[in-house]
Amino acid sequence: MAVTLGAAMPHPITAPLAALALTFGGTHLFAQARAGALAPSLQGKPVVVDIYASWCSKCQTIGPTLSSLRQQKAGKATFLKFDVSNASQLEKSRVTARALGLGPFLEANRSQPSLVAVINPATGASVQTFRASTDERAYIAAIKKAQSMIKP
After folding, report:
1. Which domains does the chain have, with CATH numbers?
2. Among 129, 108, 110, which residue's Cα sits nearest to residue 21?
3. What is the C-alpha separation between 24 and 28, in angstroms, rounded?
């Protein structure tokens, strides 16, 4: 397993492991297990997952970038937002995440608002993660990479 530190760096997952989120010296480390295929409704297109909180200033900053991506990639990628603003919103997000096969991902990253991951739905593995990134070109490149990994 490779762990990513910081933003916009890929982290290939090579074995099925439990998902974990770690903190080292005040810096969050992101790790996600290869959870297996996501729900059938998510198959065929890259999945872009946004961990969001209404009180998170970085989430507000990346909002316009993600909105633009949703418009540009409509029909070519699936966009999900898991709201972790409060206990009630987190519970709703948990129910949705579990139903979609993203429960371990949400649990590992629920304390990291402004984290965005591009996921291959066939394997459940993150192709690339971003932290508070407004780099639209980097997101587009990650989505294209995920598209190339998905069998037609």
Report:
1. 4-149 (3.40.30.10)
2. 108
3. 6
